Amino acid sequence: MSDVSQSRAVPASGLDRFFGLSAQGSTVSREIRAGITTFLTMSYILFVNPQVLGTAIHVPNAFVQLLMTTAIAAAFGCLVMGLIARYPFAQAPGMGLNAFFAFTVVQGMGIPWQTALGAVFISGILFVLLSVLGARQAIVQAIPTSLKFAITGGIGAFLAFLGLKNAGIVVSNPATLVGLGSLTAPPVWLSMLGLIITAVLMTRRVTGAILWGILATTLIAILTGAAVYAGGANGALRAFPGFDGSFLGIFGTPVWPSSLVGQLDIAGAVGLGLLSVVFTFFFVDFFDATGTLTGLSQRAGFLDEKGNMPRARRLFAMDGLAAMFGAFMGTSTTTAYVESASGIGEGGRTGLTAVTVGVLFLLSMFLWPLASAIPGAATAPALILVGALMMEGVRHVDWDDISEGLPAFLTIIAMPLTFSIANGVSLGVISYCAIKLFSGQMRRVSPILYGVAALLLIRYIWLVGE
Ligand SMILES: Nc1ncnc2[nH]cnc12
């Protein structure tokens, strides 16, 4: 009430009206701070995406061209999300999807990268079509409330796992799959210190706690000379030191990625009958993005009592559009980023947050050596803390009823352990339908959800058969 009366008393600026800042109880400075925070937690993609895609796309000066393509695709994704859908969600080429593109499709199946880009483009068209027709919203509505909370919690676990892995706190172990890293390794102690600093700032309700935590950890790394820039846990920085410490060293010259732009081969993708590849890109991104967007919306308080988000068609269509544009620019699927939760944690509630991230991605075409000065160990605490914040909703799951609790648990645990949001959503939906179907509660589940579960099951069986 008071927000509304205040915004009536003080005439709202154009920016305020366009983004609905006062309506969301937010301010320009809070949105910009949220945007910087989200950018810092996801800027690693500028270096990691070229590394992954560079194993499959061989063009002159591939690393820098792919870095530019990544920055432009991310900027476009963030700008359309902020300006058209007006949500505080950032987009960039997705991890997992880039690995599937490079290792499975191009290197594994021997499909030319141009044709694979064509398949990404077609999956983007399908995405936009389904969003405009309202099919994605219908599926989101059919997902039971307990699974929606579990999806948010699972994404939190996924984020925390990403942070723990980036920091070197969790490492691979051939005997047990995962193990504890060396606590005396610089990235490990640095990120643990950063975690405590950020948690204390948050507990003391300091504005910008996550952002301050990232900057303080970076400063400590620089002042102590901790070996996180070379040979640290963050492979991107090891391979590409970028920042040389000098003032001029923060500037890089942008390059137009002419060997990548417009190289996609749509006709080739159709002609080669890449149905299963298109379907996989489509499937993984569909459940990845739908899970991410639902989880983020829930975290930001955008869902109404029926679990629907406002402007859902536009919201969903924007990540399809970003995927299409990204494929045109020469990168694998661009999608909504879970790291946006860090900006939401800073209070970002409107499209201005996403626009800020987009502008920073554009600037990073000039300032990418500076972005490389933020080590993975400094952003890891943000990922872990935001993961903890996203767990909050799982208390709404009815854990005493195993037909609700087990699917929710599978959703949460499968996301970090299979390193895929899509797998978590899929296992949750399949187990939910199967348990309800055979325990006399068949009618409690929407027919749409049964249809989705059947499709997911067929896809898993098909995958095994391949
Ligand atoms: N595939 C993905 N989906 C959501 N958020 C991500 N952040 C990095 N990769 C992502």
From TrEMBL:
InterPro entries named in the record: Azg-like, Azg-like_bact_archaea, NCS2
Sorted UniProt keywords: Cell membrane, Membrane, Transmembrane, Transmembrane helix, Transport
Family: Belongs to the nucleobase:cation symporter-2 (NCS2) (TC 2.A.40) family. Azg-like subfamily.
Keyword Heme belongs to the record: no
Pfam family, one: Xan_ur_permease
Transmembrane segments: 36-57, 63-85, 92-110, 116-135, 147-164, 184-202, 209-230, 266-287, 315-338, 350-371, 378-397, 409-435, 447-465
Main location as per UniProt: membrane
The species this protein was found in: Deinococcus carri
Transferase found in the keyword field: no
Protein location: Cell membrane
Protein name according to UniProt: Adenine permease AdeP
Membrane protein topology class: Multi-pass membrane protein
